[in-house]
Amino acid sequence: MALNATEKIWFNGKLVPWGEAKVHVVSHALHYGSSVFEGVRCYKTPKGSAIFRGLDHMKRLLASAKVYRMPLNYSAEALLKAAKETVAANKLDECYVRPIAFYGYGSMGVNPAGASFDVAIACWPWGAYLGDEGLRKGIRVTISSWRRIDSQILPGAAKAGGNYLNSLLAKMDAVAHGFDEAVLLNLQGKVAEGSGENIFVVKDGRLCTPPLSAGVLDGITRNSVIVLAQELGIPFAERELSREDLFLADEVFFTGTAAEVTPVREVDGRVVGGGSRGPVTEKLQTAFFDVVKGKNAKFFKWLDYVKRA
Ligand code: PPE
User: Fold this and answer.
1) Residue nearest to atom 20 of ligand 1 (CA)
2) 40 CA from centroid of ligand 1 (Å)
3) Ligand 1 proximity of 196 Cβ (cutoff 6 Å)
4) Burial (Cβ within 10 Å: 0-12, 13-18, ≥19) of residue 180
5) Which of 14, 49, 86, 214 is an S-S bond match for 210, by CB 3.0 to 4.6 Å?
6) 258 lines ligand 1 (CB under 6 A)
7) Separation between Cα atoms, residue 30 and residue 21, nearest integer Å
8) Torsion of CA 232, 237, 241, 244, to 10 degrees
């Protein structure tokens, strides 16, 4: 997706011009994938721009860093404050926010001891990750021949840069084969997640998603949708899903900060349900957008205003 430069990036505690937030080519993370990152969205609401579940994202960033013994010496609150300053400095109403912490310059070899440890927060306008039409009508997916990384190899709870080579392989193959997105199975052959999304199915009015033990990221959008389903009285269970559960579902959808709530209308040539956004998906999608856009007072607690109006 196109990336349009904005004005400022928060880099190790200071706002610097976009073009000056640079790293050296022998930075550790570039060679070994030794970074952890987050994807956060900021939405326009009636009371000003607000970051959605910012503290939860920053806590997950700290958790990812802990897994990799990274010295991320900021509190979640301080990181959220920095994210708000970054959005404010770029004068954006709505944007995607990308905090990243990584081993930088100073040593080579797998052991990062001696390398700098850098933290940055960038933001930029980012539209619908899987297209506006995808959000309304659904997308076409394929089950990847690549398996999702097993947590005995790389821990799924950590959102680490290196994990995304697995996503990249699955996504590129899916696109090369004419699909919009890939679904990855885990090593047990059960449904895990998309290249950058969690996945849900609806069957006979019941909503299901694979448990975290399937090796999936503990998605914040996944959690938000589960809470909203409970709110709306939609029966929900975490359950292992097989490939055929996707083929035979009444509805399938993806969740993610970037993907938001995106319906899936086809899985490897099998039309899902009626072949467009299903009614439960639409209900949850509407509820989700109401919450992030500050239209549901019950969930104001999930919003952090960039500037108090
Ligand atoms: N699984 C994976 C593998 C994943 O990367 C994401 C987010 C999710 C699930 C959903 O998590 P959450 O955002 O907390 O609901 N993927 C991020 C990066 C996408 C990208 O292409 O970059 C995102 O959505 O920001």
Assistant:
1) 196
2) 9
3) yes
4) buried
5) 214
6) yes
7) 15
8) -50
Residue 214 vs residues 82, 115, 298: alpha-carbon distances, Å: 34, 34, 31
Tokens found for residue 184: 């990855």
Q: Token digits for 236?
A: 């929900």
Quick check: 308 pLDDT over 70?
Answer: no
For residue 254, which amino acid is it?
F
pLDDT at 309 over 80: no
Inter-residue long-range contacts of 67-70, CB under 8 Å, 24+ positions, other chains counted? 67/155, 67/157, 67/158, 67/160, 68/34, 68/36, 68/158, 68/160, 70/36, 70/101, 70/103, 70/117
Q: Residue written as tokens 């000003």?
A: 48
> What's the whole-model pTM score?
0.97
| One-letter identity of residue 99 | P
Give nearest CA residue, ligand 1 atom 3: 196
